[in-house]
């Protein structure tokens, strides 16, 4: 096996060495003494990386039908910038770097959202995370106006009905700098239905979805200046974090929370906190 790192971040150093290994089964025999080295894609070949990702197939039957959904969330994922007093920061044009989903840079509160939701503590979070971007523009343009750089700061979540099927379309943008974003959802695995470069076309792109045997994962990479679509079934009641797995982007605000409501049966309800659980 041979693997090369994949990176599209301009000007950021990374380990670009190639990893090789020999995988030998227990009953293997007649292993060749020399193995020709394969021709690997270039480290920033996004087409090769995503063609491979989407070529993976689910090995078993689908866990739920993929021919429909109950709710769609279309969310931009962006690197942003906040102005600094006296232009004193080290970001672009003396700003401070930030990140967002649907132009909301998530603000963490002193009371955690799980506790606030379970005990009905008001004022900790809002429930108005938008279903679509608040402003539509050419998200992947190479020349975006600076007025688009500054997001809103808020703690907004999305409340989801139990057992509903949710489609999330992540749309990368070229604000500040286009980059791939590994988006991770706690509490669920999801099916990766499709991806593409450029702006998501709601009329044509869904026609190319794989609804038969798509990859089944809990993390998906949004391609640089592109989009990816996932679906999951909300059968796990609770408060679940959705975030970029680049930790710096997470700390900058590229996250939100999905609150899945209780179902009707006892086993479909969020569990109470353990008796000896320490406080956050």
Automatic annotation (TrEMBL):
Pfam families: Cu-oxidase_2
Subcellular location: Secreted
Domain of life: Eukaryota
GO cellular component terms given for this protein: extracellular region
Domain spans labelled Plastocyanin-like: 150-263
InterPro entries in the cross-refs: Cu-oxidase_C, Cu-oxidase_fam, Cu_oxidase_CS, Cu_oxidase_Cu_BS, Cupredoxin, CuRO_3_LCC
Keyword Ribonucleoprotein included in the entry's annotation: no
GO molecular function, one term: oxidoreductase activity
Presence of keyword Metal-binding: yes
Keywords (A to Z) from UniProt: Copper, Metal-binding, Oxidoreductase, Repeat, Secreted
Main location (coarse class): secreted
Family: Belongs to the multicopper oxidase family.
Protein name according to UniProt: Plastocyanin-like domain-containing protein
Source species: Lactuca saligna
Classification lineage: Eukaryota, Viridiplantae, Streptophyta, Embryophyta, Tracheophyta
């Amino acid at each position: 096996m041979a693997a090369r790192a994949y990176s599209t971040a301009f000007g950021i150093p990374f380990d670009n060495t190639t990893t090789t290994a020999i995988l030998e089964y227990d009953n293997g025999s007649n292993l060749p003494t020399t193995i020709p080295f394969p021709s690997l894609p270039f480290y920033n070949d996004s087409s090769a990386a995503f063609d491979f990702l989407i070529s993976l197939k689910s090995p078993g039957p689908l866990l739920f039908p993929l021919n429909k959904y109950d709710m769609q969330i279309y969310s931009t994922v962006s690197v942003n910038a906040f102005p600094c007093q006296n232009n004193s920061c080290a970001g672009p044009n003396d700003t401070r770097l930030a990140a967002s989903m649907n132009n909301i840079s998530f603000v963490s509160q002193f009371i955690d959202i799980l506790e606030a939701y379970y005990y009905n503590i008001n004022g900790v979070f809002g429930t108005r995370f938008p279903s679509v971007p608040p402003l539509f523009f050419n998200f992947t343009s190479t020349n975006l106006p600076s007025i688009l750089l500054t997001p809103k700061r808020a703690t907004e979540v999305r409340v989801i009905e139990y057992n509903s099927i949710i489609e999330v379309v992540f749309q990368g943008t070229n604000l500040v700098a286009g980059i791939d974003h590994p988006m991770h959802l706690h509490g669920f695995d999801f099916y990766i239905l499709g991806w593409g470069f450029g702006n998501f076309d709601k009329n044509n792109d869904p026609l190319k979805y794989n609804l038969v045997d798509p990859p089944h994962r809990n993390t998906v990479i949004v391609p640089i200046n592109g989009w990816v679509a996932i679906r999951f079934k909300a059968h796990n009641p609770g408060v679940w974090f959705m975030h970029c797995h680049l930790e710096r982007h997470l700390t900058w605000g590229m996250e939100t929370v999905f609150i899945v409501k209780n179902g009707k049966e006892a086993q479909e309800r969020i569990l109470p906190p353990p008796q000896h659980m320490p406080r956050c």
